[in-house]
Every structure is written in structure tokens, then in C-alpha cells.
Specification:
The chain starts with a helix and ends with a strand. Strands 2, 4, 5, 7, 8 and 9 form a 6-stranded mixed beta sheet that branches. It has 2 domains: 99 residues, Immunoglobulin-like (Sandwich), CATH 2.60.40.10; 69 residues, Immunoglobulin-like. By secondary structure, it is of the alpha+beta class. The chain contains 1 helix and 16 strands.
């Protein structure tokens, strides 16, 4: 009976030791959990750029109570898609505050979509920034002479001008650079308008220009 009691006390001691160790571990885990997650102090901003431009997105975050930013991951959501893919990652930072940037050079339509950053702290968890939208527009076609496609042909002098598709283009000509006359008006198709001036066959000198009507 005495041995049984001692054995029972040993069991109680072992259980108490297990509870104590488990309690210490739980207390440590709870202490880690009360650290606040990083706070975003500056969100990336949406923007509208033309093809060929360069755009930069930036995010700032700060940690508190001894927590440190360890990694910043940047993600891109293509236009029309619902899932993002990682496009940049900066790790091993160990900073209480961070400003991180992601740059896209020579922007094309494939870069249109959403960009956001994930701030990772080893002790305090993660926080995700707002999503910044990138809108990419195609620059308008300028009104300009296409010299490589202009020149004398069998029935006159052919001139070609680039112009926004659907715009009304007026081609004018002069022989003295003083009095200009309209010689052709048409709607630009495919980004250009072309005309062959038969008067140029007999003119000693001829100049051309175009304007939008």
C-alpha cells in the first residue's frame, strides 16, 4: 500500500511537471501573439500611364514592441485575373520601419492590373497593403509626314501623313510657302491618310502640310 501511494505521488509529480512545462510554453506563445502586426503607414497608389513610360509603386510599414520587418513581397494581378503572382521579394531586412518600392520599366498593356505588397514580420505576423491599379493607355498617333512613304510616282507626288484613326485630315499644298490651298480632305484609316497630287507633275516646286479638321 505504501509503495502504491508513493507511485501515485510520483505520477502526480510527473503530471504536475508536464502541466508546468506546457503552461510555460503556452504562456510564451501567448506572449508572442500579443505583439501587434506591422502597420501600413503609406499605401501604394493607383496610376495611369502611357505605353513606354516607367512607373514605381511604394509602400511603407512600421513595427512595434520590438517586432521587426523581415521580408517585403510584391505581387501583380493581371487585368481580368483574380489571382496574383509574386514579382519581387526583398528579405533579410530586420528593420522596425521600411519603405519598399517596385518599378516597372517600358510599360506595356501586359503590365496593366493590380500591384500590392505583403509585409512579413517574424514575430508579429504579416500585413498586406491595399491594391494599386495600373492603367496603361496607348499614346495618340501624332499628325506627321511619313517621308519614307512619300515621293514622286507616275501620276503625281504621293504624300502620306500619320493621323488618329477616324479623324478628318485636310492636306494642303503651296508653291510659294505663302498661299496654302486645300487639295484633299478625308478620314484617316489605319492611322494614316494618303493622297497623290497630280499638279506636282507640272509644278516647279510644291510643299505639303496637313491639319485636323
Amino acid at each position: 500500500m505504501e509503495n502504491k501511494i508513493r507511485f501515485g505521488n510520483r505520477q502526480l509529480f510527473q503530471k504536475a511537471l508536464i502541466y508546468l512545462v506546457f503552461g510555460l510554453f503556452t504562456a510564451k506563445a501567448e506572449a508572442l501573439q500579443i505583439l501587434p502586426a506591422p502597420e501600413i503607414t503609406a499605401q501604394p497608389l493607383s496610376t495611369n500611364v502611357q505605353e513606354g513610360d516607367t512607373v514605381t509603386f511604394s509602400v511603407s510599414a512600421e513595427c512595434f514592441l520590438g517586432a521587426l520587418v523581415n521580408t517585403v513581397n510584391w505581387y501583380f494581378i493581371p487585368a481580368g485575373s483574380s489571382s496574383g503572382k509574386e514579382v519581387a521579394s526583398y528579405g533579410g531586412l530586420s528593420l522596425t520601419s521600411i519603405t519598399s518600392s517596385y518599378t516597372v520599366k517600358n510599360v506595356t498593356s501586359t503590365n496593366a492590373g493590380g500591384y500590392y505588397a505583403e509585409i512579413v514580420s517574424v514575430l508579429a505576423g504579416n500585413v498586406t497593403s491595399a491594391t494599386a491599379e495600373l492603367i496603361v493607355t496607348t499614346p495618340p498617333i501624332p499628325l506627321a509626314a511619313v517621308t519614307s512613304k512619300s515621293g514622286m510616282v507616275s501620276n503625281g507626288f504621293k504624300v502620306q501623313f500619320t493621323a488618329p484613326t477616324g479623324s478628318n485630315v485636310v492636306i494642303e499644298a503651296t508653291s510659294d510657302m505663302n498661299k496654302w490651298s486645300s487639295i484633299y480632305t478625308n478620314v484617316a484609316t489605319g492611322g494614316s491618310v494618303t493622297y497623290t497630287d497630280a499638279v506636282a507633275k507640272t509644278a516647279a516646286c510644291r510643299f505639303y502640310r496637313a491639319r485636323l479638321k
